[in-house]
Amino acid sequence: MITKTVPNVSSALEGIQSGMTLMLGGFGLCGIPENLIKTIAKSPLKDFTCISANVGVDDFGLGLLFQHKKIKTMIGSYVGENAEFERQMLSNEIEVVLTPMGTLAEKCRAAQMGIPAFYTPAGYGTEVAEGKEVRSFHSKKYILEEAYQADFALIKAWKGDHAGNLIFRGTAKNFNSVMCGAAKNTVVEVEELLPPGELDPNQIHTPGIFVDRIFEGTSYEKRIENLTLKTL
Predict the structure, then answer these.
(1) Are the C-beta atoms of residues 208 and 4 closer than 8 Å to each other?
(2) The domain 9-113+148-216 belongs to what CATH superfamily?
(3) H helix or E strand, kind and range, residue 95
(4) C-alpha–C-alpha distance, residues 171 and 173, integer Å
(5) pLDDT band with cut points at 50, 70 and 90 for residue 192
(6) 224 vs 153: which has the higher pLDDT
(7) Pick from 27, 95, 86: which is nearest to 61 by CA?
(8) Tens digits of per-residue pLDDT, 90-99?
(9) φ, ψ for residue 66 (rounded to 5)?
(10) DSSP 212
(11) pTM of the predicted model, to two decimals?
C-alpha cells in the first residue's frame, strides 16, 4: 500500500533549508498552504526565493513571510495588496522579479512536465524580454522562457488520500495544480485526509505521482468565504 502521509506540518517541512527556492500555491486569499506558511514564518529559516502568483496581504498568506523578513527574492505577478512587501521592494531589501501571470503558470507547468524551456509572445518588447533569446515564428516574435527550478512546492488541496491523490475545491485549484510535481519535493496540506479508495477516481484533479508528502492541516481561515442566511 502506497502511503505518503506524514504526521504533522513539522514532518512535512523536513529538509527545507535557508536560501532554498519555494513554490507556493494559491492566489489572493484562495488556496493558500496556511499551515506550511505559518510554520516557516515562525522558524529561524530565511533568505528564500519564493515563486507565487501573488504576495498575499500584510497579515495573511505570504504576507507572514514578508512580515518576518524570510524572503530574499520574490518571483510573482500580482503584488498590489501588501504594504510591507511594497516597503521592502522600494527600500531594496528584497529582489523582485515580475512575471506575466500566464508565463508564470507555464513555467510551473513546464517544470512539472520536464520541459526545460518554451517560447512565448508574452513580454516581447518589454523589460520582461531583456537578456532573453528572441525568435520569430510565422512572422511573430517570441521570447524563450526557462522552466522554474525549485526545491519545494508547498500546496493546499481540499481533499486528499494517503497515496497523495488530490481534489481541489473550485477556484482554489488555481496555481496549486500546476505546481504539484514542479519542484524536487512537493508537500501538500489538505483539509480532509482520507484512506485510499475513498476518493472518486473521476473527481481526482492531481494524481499522487506528483506528491511526495501529504498531511491534514488545521484551523483554516477562509477570509473570502461568507456564510449567508435567508429567512423564508
Answers:
(1) yes
(2) Glutaconate Coenzyme A-transferase (3.40.1080.10)
(3) strand 95-98
(4) 5
(5) very high
(6) 153
(7) 27
(8) 999 999 999 9
(9) -70, -40
(10) S
(11) 0.93
